[in-house]
Amino acid sequence: MAKTKISEYSATSADNTDISNINIAEGCSPANVNNAIRTLMAQIKDLQAGTSGDTIPLTAGGTGAANATTARSNLGLVIGTNVQAYDANTVFDDVSATFTAANSFTAKQTFTGSSSVISSKFVNALEGVTVSATAATGTINYDVTTQSVLYYTSNASANWTVNFRGSSGTSLNTAMATGESITVVFLVTNGSTAYYNNVVQIDGTTVTPKWQGIAAPTSGNASSVDAYSYSIIKTGSATYTVFASQIQFK
Q1: pTM to 2 decimals?
Q2: Rounded (5°) CA angle 190-194-195
Q3: Which residues contact 30 (CB under 8 A, 6 or more apart)?
Q4: Cβ neighbour number for residue 22 with a 10 Å cutoff
Q5: What is the model's pLDDT at position 178?
């Protein structure tokens, strides 16, 4: 059989006696060697251009496919047809993708638009809420990787410090990059004696928020739920600007 593309060659060198019907067996014409090399170069270029019909297997660093749809399937990247877990810092760059089933993202994803294209659109979205029968007091570690809203349903027993961090094993400084922001809410229940958040920390270091209104709150609201909102902007390494507010719900 004439070897007209790379996939038709044999792993046994003695079996390769022609290139596209050009005889390269022992004793062939010198001109055949020149012609065979030129033809081989053309076949390699066809492989690179994707016009030869050959595919490169996954084990050789390819996709084992001749088109994008099959390539995504072979690589486990089928979009919109199954539950797909993304466990790396995937970047979605100017790609219009529709997910029609549940997808699990286990690391930070970056959706990159352009100067003329918005990077993402959410028709509806849910946020994680932790509801805990806990009374606010002392230092409360707020792990931003756990929830967006933390709701303490028992009456606060003293003024408290809230310390923002990524988690018990990850600092917020590690979890966030400079130029990123995160907004979280802390809902605190007060009884007849009201208490309030009087110290804000990030990774154990006290910061001074910019509070909505004239000044920081100096009291809580009795027999109410006080909602504290914190927008944290990372402006440099371990450096933040925090915009905070306190709103009463009764």
Answers
A1: 0.65
A2: 95
A3: none
A4: 21
A5: 98
Q: Rounded distance, CA 172 to CA 207, Å?
A: 13
Buried b or exposed e, range 216-238, using 16+ CB within 10 angstroms? bbeebbeebbbbbbbebbbeeee
Give the residue ranges of DSSP H helices in the chain: 30-49, 68-74, 172-175
Please provide the DSSP assignment of 158-220 as one string. Answer: S-EEEEEESBTTB-HHHHS-TT-EEEEEEEEE--SS---EEEEEETTEEE--EESSSS-----
Q: Any idea of the CA torsion for 166, 172, 174, 180, to the nearest 10 degrees?
A: 110
Phi, psi of 112 (to 5 degrees): -105, 120
Q: Where are the chain's structural domains?
A: 6-49, 58-112, 129-249
pLDDT block averages, 10 residues each, the chain of length 250: 81 87 89 89 83 82 79 68 53 61 77 87 92 98 98 98 98 97 98 98 98 94 98 98 98
Whole-number pLDDT of residue 6: 83
- As a whole number of angstroms, the distance between CA 184 and CA 240 comes to 15
Residue 92 tokens read as: 């979605």
76: left (phi over 0), alpha (psi -120 to 50) or beta: left
Dihedral, CA of residue 206, residue 211, residue 214 and residue 218, to nearest 10: -60
Question: What's the distance, CA 228 to chain centroid?
Answer: 27
Neighbours of 108 (CB within 10 A): 12
Nearest alpha carbon to residue 84 among 98, 66, 102, 68: 102
What strands lie across the sheet with 205-207, from one edge to the other?
138-143, 160-165, 197-202, 205-207
Sorted by sequence, the CB contacts under 8 Å of residue 115 that are 6+ apart come out as: none
